[in-house]
Design goal:
about 5% strand, 2 helices, mainly alpha
Length: about 70
Amino acid sequence: MNGRVVRRGRTLGLRPFLVVVFVVAASGSLALVAVDLVIGRPAGGDVFIAVLNSLVAAVSWRRLAPDVTGSTAD
């Protein structure tokens, strides 16, 4: 194989990479919110971005998990 995870005769392709990207983005956004709070800057915009990144990461993680583990619970 060429390093791709195969499930039910299809490859996952770019999805695992995108899950990692959004998890890292969500973590970075939360770190920026913490820095904003420490230095006293308004954190409204960073909180909004952190929530969006976290939401996309959670949904992506949830949709990827059954394909990787073979679970049928959905």
